[in-house]
């Protein structure tokens, strides 16, 4: 961050860099959770949901790029070792040991809800103090809210399909 930008930022840049590196770790873990989950997923609607999960993975990777760029702009260093991701991340990476589509979607839903909290916190922390980071946080927050909505819709669709099948078998 330039000297003048730091002067007018009116926030603790060290704390902001910590939050951004936490977000960076979370984005990488979210990317992998989406990507690997899409690959191993089994069950109804898999062919419809898999490409969407892969699209979400790509968006999480784009978020990681935005966050890393912002860390560098602020004079910080993005996490350099993937082994640091779990210790920095406040969001839990859930290994997809159950490949059933509903389990995969629930894991991704948990991750999205954690990401929503992360970017809400970042947006609040930077509001009126660091406009660039605030704008980035709000942009990513909107993506995460859309992801949550998508996943909830898929879960609801699967539940409705199961209800319809139960009715047919009665």
Shape descriptor:
elongated
Number of helices: 6
Helix fraction by DSSP (H/I, runs of at least 4): over 70%
Q: For the terminal residues, how far apart are their CA atoms?
A: 66 Å
Note the run of SSEs as H and E. Answer: HHHHHH
**How would you characterize the largest beta sheet?**
none
How large a portion of the residues is in β-strands, by DSSP E? under 5%
Unreliable stretches:
none
Number of DSSP E strands? 0
**Mean pLDDT figure:** 94
Query: Using only CA atoms, what is the Rg?
Result: 18 Å
Structural class: mainly alpha
Descriptive report:
The chain has 170 residues and is mainly alpha-helical. Helices cover 77% and strands 0% of the residues. It has six helices and no strands. The N and C termini lie far apart (66 Å). The mean pLDDT is 94.
Short note summarizing the structure:
This protein is mainly α. It has helices at 3-9, 13-40, 46-73, 85-88, 101-126, 131-168.
Primary descriptors:
170 residues; mainly alpha; 77% helix
Q: In terms of topology, how is this protein built?
A:
Blueprint: H1 3-9, H2 13-40, H3 46-73, H4 85-88, H5 101-126, H6 131-168
């Amino acid at each position: 961050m330039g000297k003048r930008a730091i002067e007018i930022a009116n926030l603790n840049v060290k704390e902001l860099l910590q939050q951004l590196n936490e977000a960076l770790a979370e984005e990488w873990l979210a990317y992998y959770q989406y990507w690997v989950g899409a690959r191993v997923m089994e069950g109804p609607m898999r062919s419809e949901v898999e490409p969407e999960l892969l699209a979400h993975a790509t968006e999480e990777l784009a978020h990681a790029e935005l966050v890393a760029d912002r860390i560098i702009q602020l004079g910080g260093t993005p996490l350099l070792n993937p082994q640091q991701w779990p210790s920095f991340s406040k969001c839990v990476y859930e290994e997809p040991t159950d490949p059933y589509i509903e389990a995969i979607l629930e894991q991704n839903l948990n991750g999205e809800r954690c990401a929503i909290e992360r970017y809400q916190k970042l947006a609040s922390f930077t509001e009126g103090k660091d406009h660039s980071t605030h704008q980035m946080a709000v942009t990513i927050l909107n993506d995460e809210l859309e992801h949550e909505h998508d996943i909830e819709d898929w879960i609801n669709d699967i539940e409705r399909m199961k209800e319809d099948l139960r009715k047919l078998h009665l």
